[in-house]
Task: structure prediction
Amino acid sequence: MPDITTLFEGTDGVSRTLFNQKLSDVNAHGNDATMHVTAAERAAWNGKANGNNAVWVATEVGAPDNNNSCVLTIPNFIFTEGCQITYKATAKPKSSTQYNCIKINNTGDWYALRNPVGEVLDDDAWEVGANVTVTLSSKSFNHPQNWPTAFFKGGSGSIKEMFTFPLSIQTAEPTPLDTNHIWIQNATKRRIVFDDAIRSSPPGDSYWFIQDNMDNSLVYLQSPIKTTDNITLNSILRKGNRDTITWRLSERGGTNGNGHVFAKKNGVDYYSDIDSKWPRIMSRVDSVIDVENAKRWDGSAWQWLSQKGHYLISKNGAANRVDGSISNYRGFDSTTSVGQVAVSSNGLWVARISGAGPSSTDTLTIYKREGDAFSLNSTITGIDPAPADNTGNYGKRCIQFSPDSQSILIPGGSKGALFYLIKLQANGTWSLLTRYAKHTQCVKACFNETGSQIITLSSWVYDPDDGDVSRHLEVYSKSGDTISLLSSTVIKDSALIKDYFSIGKMITVGDYIYINTNAMSASNDNSVFSVIKSSDKTRAYFLSSSTQTNDSYEAQALVSIGNGRVIYALGQSTSQVVIKMHNIAQPNQSTTLTYCNNFRALTVSPDYKYLFVLSTDGLLVYSINSDYTVTQITPALITFTASGSLACW
Result:
């Protein structure tokens, strides 16, 4: 037995011999001109029968000559009709009958490279370094010297993407490439479909690029078509756009100026030139359709295309919202009776109360948002109606979700209920938790900002001792399902209560209670805005108008915009309201923002950047500036239903 030195040292050491063999093979793998196949693999592969054909791999590929032809080294090669050869390309092909040939072991015939139908190869059939597979034939096709043929069978290919706009599907912000760049803020890659609606076909998970109308797109497609007698013709599909186009899906240019060359066949180019308006991005995953967060690059910043969970909602329907842009309005309830709408802070629930008038009960309908669809979840009937105003019109009361989205508060009606509390059940539906009864009417109630308290205000109570009227402002604690009275305050401030102080809306902001109402006063002081300090129930601010607008919709217009500020509406004339802002830091004044004719409702976006004002003339959208002024950014959108209530996600 050899000693350790013989095994590992010296020129004949066994270990060194094995190492040198492996080193030689590693060096062969590192040679860019050599297929990365071991000698043993090559010996087993080269010449191996594959049906009636043989399969070979070139060990070396010579540099191309002036005709883009090269010599392949294939040890022990024997030609058989239909045998296959694979090699690493050292040059791109040239579109010529004379060029593009290979010779094996520098002996015998040159083989002219052709496509599967015997035509000259396109000059982009492969790139340098591609693994090219050809099939050899003794027959000649379209060669001046009638050389035999090497039919091109595999390689990098000549097909490019038809759509050339940059697309990023990722959560991290990408590096913008150009002004056609779209970024879908999702990590999951899915098939892309361009359409003006989501359809049942194609099935499976997809991202849908939805345009308002495909008629607005420009489409130019050019490709070859072969007749039954084997004649190749050029064909063009063209559709002119009917609207201004802003987004280029396929780059312009090409050798004929008509579009982007993305493929070739039978010697004819494929061109594409496609433009469209910017889409909103949707997804279909299993059976759930939803909006995706997606942006486009405008050259200096990423701008929203679509936003998941952002909607503007009326009592009859909903529209998708991207900042201040509204689109795709559709109804989820065609009922036209009077109603008020509210939305939960978690973006899942829409509640709507409606009825036929003060002589019948009201109905609460609750819808659940699943993806981009709204479906009826629960219906609760038998709720006492709101009282009529002094002209006999049906009162319009406001409803509210608790901050945790688990409860709905409904102010009491005309039959002595102080409030109703509706609760989300464990099975995912809603039911009545309590009808809290009281001897006085109450149509104003709200949660405090944490949801731990319920605050109510009675419509009015006549005191026979002094002949005066008063209000009961009551605060209840809410702990789980338990409701307890904390305090009851009688308010006789004539500036606050007026004569009837009936229908309207109430919210809390910090230590203040804001009330907007239609006072229904015989003295005609009808529109009233009040601010009460909740700690001592004293008046902090009061503003009234001597004019009641039609149907008193302004009484429902009261919304917080954060930082101690609220926006509300006050009657200006029978057909006009003034929209104002109150800042608790300046309690003795309100600022006028704008005016609205034929007013119906208002709301603000959750980020307090946009004000939406609805009238019978349409929907007006304003941006809320950093100095708390407003700027109108859209003309009236007449397609939005002019209902008497708005809510925003």
